[in-house]
Task: structure prediction
Amino acid sequence: MNRPGAETFDFIIVGAGSAGCVLANRLSARPNATVLLLEAGGGDRHPYIHIPAAFIKTFTDPRFNWCFETEPVPGAGNRSIFFPRGKVLGGSSSISGHLYVRGQAEDYDTWAALGNRGWSYADVLPLFKAQEDRSAGADAYHGSGGPQHVSDIHERHPLCEAFIEGAVGLGLPRNPDYNGADQAGTGYYQRMIRAGRRHSAAVGFLHPVLERANLTLKTRAQVTRLECAGRQVTGVSYHQDGRTRQAVARREVLLCGGAIASPQLLQVSGIGPGALLQKLGIPVVHESPGVGEGLQDHYAVRVSRRVNRPITLNHRARGWRLCWEAIRWYTSGSGLLAFSPAHAFAFARSDPGLARPDLQLVFTPASYADSTEPVSRLQDEPGMTCGVWQTVPTSFGHVHARSADTRDAPAIQPNYLDTEHDRKVIVQGLKWCRRLLQTEALAPDRGPELSPGTACESDDDLLTYAASMGSTVYHPVSTCRMGRDALAVVDPELKLHGMTGLRVVDASVMPTMVSANTNAATLMIAEKAAQLITGG
Ligand SMILES: Cc1cc2nc3c(=O)[nH]c(=O)nc-3n(C[C@H](O)[C@H](O)[C@H](O)COP(=O)(O)OP(=O)(O)OC[C@H]3O[C@@H](n4cnc5c(N)ncnc54)[C@H](O)[C@@H]3O)c2cc1C
Result:
């Protein structure tokens, strides 16, 4: 029930992450619509958010990060795996690794083939272009002048050049634009970085419009439940400054909490699988068996090698050199601190017979103290790392609320490597990493393999290594899947099946995983949602 005295807005957006920032921008562009944007985290002024290489700091900082842990994952040695999500303006785009990767045309054509009309590649390409401000300029695949800046790497490290040359020698085509006609091949990543600073969704979409009189932003405002009248979502309750408040939506509530929080919020509000809600003692408002099911994520493993000259980033990240790098970044936005964690890419096939790549590889001229995490402390000695993940896994997990209180972290079970197919592909992925680090081009600088090490030889050894040392690469999707089948949660207009007044707009609605890091697709989903809502 909505209490008297609750504030009223046309639209209430829950979560100022990647999707929420896009929606806040697009919906408040119409002066006759009032918009309330509620974000559980705080503002994004801290310098760690804006220095690209300070990713390493925000990765585990609870001031900006929900710092979840998964349930023990059977396919990953029964380990609980650290699972960061952004809790700050910009959401996960404020703590992300900056890579701008849209995926393959076939990803979106698959969405359309599953009954989601309007989501084919031909449909969504104009939306990607409309959002983009590509430093290299516009062309058939890219836009310029949009709110999301996308730049090329500012410094080509000699080891990256050698990595790419070696990859070409292995038969991967040199690809200057994996977001263009074809994803396959090797080259440098495109980054959401502008003039050496992070270009999050908050920077691109939210800050430029915060002065609009019809947009109200509340930070440290955690939505605790969706309010419903019968089958209609009418508003939200949220917790701010130690008090519970209410807001009413004249038109719609737009749930943008991301692939973990959105299903949890639906479940605690009585919208979800009946058995789960009953177990938690939550009255069922609307039984929707797919809420929280179908979780997919990318699971990465890494191979690292010593480099026999002090040319890697390890060396530049210490002592007086780090001070010099800080001055460089401050004065010119360049150098070490302007790097994203991954520099060069390869999109490869685990089986040469495949029509398109099913492996994404990342190369960094650095090595890490903890090889299960890409962002732990850099090693003192020089090193290089190649990581890999399967682009579209066939393993599925879930997100389940643990109680009726959204302030209790939900149970996250990604079920990595649950299928035989995924286990085979990750072993082939590790072999690709090894091959790519063993090329002639890298030979002059190459030292011994550090991880997994030469004792790890057979496919069984590689699988054991993958299971015991892999980690999330932070791309959970599909927990409120769009579709028309019995487990679909939203329809192709992102409206909740079986209820009115609510759309889910974030990474949780992806019908299937994209062959990419997930931010570009999430921004696009929100752009499309804005068009659907405004009829624009
Ligand atoms: C460490 C890390 C690195 C990544 N690197 C990359 C990369 O290099 N490239 C890439 O493309 N993708 C990357 N990603 C993934 C990408 O950032 C996400 O796919 C994308 O940001 C998801 O957007 P979203 O809107 O679905 O959710 P989010 O951006 O996570 O936004 C959800 C927002 O909702 C808020 N919220 C949650 N619950 C509530 C509540 N109850 N009340 C109010 N607010 C709430 C959260 O605090 C958050 O701000 C990375 C993610 C992480 C965590």
